[in-house]
């Protein structure tokens, strides 16, 4: 009897996992209701009768981002926070602008694969595979080239030209998330202790202090 129960639970569990892995939508849409009191994995749905075309619209991706900053790049992200109609749909978009030699520094998206299309300029892109290989896979892209950064892997882009560069990316999550490596490690709140960082990076404390002061 006990054996049968265990078997039944296992079968039930495998069906559950299958259902979650499949991520089938159960309705046409679920426009995010940011003021909804219900907490779910994502955002609660607005009453479909109150949904408007504007819930599915974001305007302004024709505007260049302001790249006057130390790294010389600006990401304009259109995720569920900017476009409530994206809720539950598993997709988002970004425009990336680069000043001459500008860098979108090493970062990762915990929840999304990114498909990157270079619209203007010439850009060096790369991502690094997981341990133990940590292989760098990189390419110089020209206008019109499309490159993919697999979900969760550290990647970057650098403008190789004297002119402006611009790219458009699709991301496979309504809320892809961004972890910028240097900021997460050297500018966490509160700081990761210098004992941890000196040992992790095998350098003297003054180098860690210098890195922490930069961010
Ligand atoms: C761009 O950002 C810089 C630095 O924050 C600022 O001084 C400048 O006014 C901004 N330019 C525009 C057009 O918003």
From TrEMBL:
Source organism, top-level taxon: Eukaryota
Lineage: Eukaryota, Viridiplantae, Streptophyta, Embryophyta, Tracheophyta
Presence of the UniProt keyword Secreted in the record: yes
Family membership: Belongs to the germin family.
Binding site for oxalate: 104, 109, 114
A Pfam family matched in the record: Cupin_1
Record-given protein name: Germin-like protein
Binding site for Mn(2+): 107, 109, 114, 155
Residues annotated as signal peptide: 1-21
GO MF, any single term: manganese ion binding
Cupin type-1 domain boundaries: 59-209
Subcellular location(s) of the protein: Secreted, Extracellular space, Apoplast
């Amino acid at each position: 009897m006990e054996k049968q129960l265990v078997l039944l639970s296992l079968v039930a569990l495998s069906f559950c996992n299958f259902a979650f892995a499949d991520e089938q939508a159960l309705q046409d849409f679920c426009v995010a209701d940011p003021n909804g009191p219900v907490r779910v994995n994502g955002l609660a749905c607005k009453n479909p009768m109150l949904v408007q075309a504007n819930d599915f619209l974001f305007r302004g991706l024709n505007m260049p981002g302001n790249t006057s900053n130390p790294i010389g790049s600006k990401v304009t992200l259109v995720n569920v926070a900017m476009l409530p109609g994206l809720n539950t749909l598993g997709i988002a978009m970004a425009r990336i602008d680069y000043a001459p030699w500008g860098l979108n520094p090493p970062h990762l998206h915990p929840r999304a694969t990114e498909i990157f299309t270079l619209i203007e300029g010439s850009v060096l892109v790369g991502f690094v595979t997981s341990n133990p290989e940590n292989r760098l896979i990189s390419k110089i892209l020209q206008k019109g080239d499309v490159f993919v950064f697999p979900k969760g892997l550290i990647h970057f882009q650098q403008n190789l030209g004297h002119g402006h560069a611009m790219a458009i990316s699709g991301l496979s999550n309504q809320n892809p998330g961004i972890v910028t490596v240097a900021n997460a490690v050297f500018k966490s709140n509160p700081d990761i202790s210098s004992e941890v960082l000196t040992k992790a990076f095998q350098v003297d404390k003054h180098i860690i202090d210098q890195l922490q002061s930069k961010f």
